[in-house]
Amino acid sequence: MQAVKRILVVIDPSQEEQVALNRASLIAGFIECELHLLVCENREDYSDLLARLRVEQDAKGIRCSVTQDWHHNATDTICRAVAREGCDLVIKQHRPDNPLRKALLTPDDWKLLRYCPAPVLMVKNSDSWIKGSVVAAVDVGNHDDQHHVLHDTIVSHAADIVEMIDGDLHLVSAHPAPMLSAADPAFQLKDSIAAEYRARAEPYVKLYGIDAQRLHIDEGPADTLVPQVANRIGASVTIIGTVGRKGIAGALIGNTAEVVLDQVNSDILVLKPEDTLAHLEALLEK
To answer: Domain UspA spans what residues (predicted)?
Structure first.
């Protein structure tokens, strides 16, 4: 989080309370970064609202700029603003779509998670983060170089937020069900699989001082286990990563983050590897 120098905050003029801006102010005040407020709208002028919000941030000692813009749709508008303004993080309020609409159309927030060339923090509510729990969701069973770097980034971001809010760090990793046909004997029994995953999580446990009660290794798909743990402990924020695919599908991400977004009660921060972000930036330039 310390590397974030400029945050793009999506302002929703229809909401009386700007919960995304409240979160952004908390972060900006701690890491001393700038804010850029964006209204995605072309049917009405919101310059007065943006001017008022900027004055409020100035009074807090936070440098702030504002823009109202529109390019085809909200996702495109936000992505272009990220590139234009040089933002390192996007913060937006998430409001669940109608189930019928979601079944027929891809939700806008899912599109933003897929295509945004910067990490995205989706704010679910106005609850305080202070002294809350932070969940870092990783797949310690997948340790190729790209995943390893992404896992390090997830846990380090989680640790930064824990320091910021004086909270607790929880590490979650889902492991597969045992298979008697597995070539590796360690993956033939549930207990041996769990032990293997705990061993792979040990570097994070030692580096960040995670005790046994805050290490959650269990069987099941990640998009089920992560929300279960986050909701059970009353997490303030859940951090999850996703690795984009190459080639034509390079701009797409796995749907774990999208499923978790609609199942956790906490805010959710979605991170991507550097090469995926670079690919998305290249797409924007075309």
So the answer is: 5-124, 154-272
Residues 6+ apart with CB under 8 A from 117: 79, 82, 83, 277, 280, 281, 284
Whether the predicted pLDDT of 264 surpasses 60: yes
Output the pTM of the full model. Answer: 0.86
Residue 237 pairs in a beta bridge with 134, 267
The CB-based long-range contact list for 202-205 (8 Å cut-off, 24+ gap) reads 204/136, 204/138, 204/151, 204/155, 204/171, 205/171
Residue 152 and residue 146 in contact, taking contact as beta carbons nearer than 8 Å: no
Distance of CA 4 to the CA centre of its chain: 14
Specify which residues 37 forms β-bridges with: 9, 66
Cβ neighbours of 160 (radius 10 Å): 18
Domain span holding position 103: 6-123
Angle subtended at Cα 239 by Cα 235 and Cα 243, rounded to the nearest 5 degrees: 155
Same domain flag for 12 and 149? no
**Domain of residue 108, CATH code:** 3.40.50.12370
Q: Are residues 169 and 227 in the same domain?
A: yes
Average pLDDT for 96-124: 77
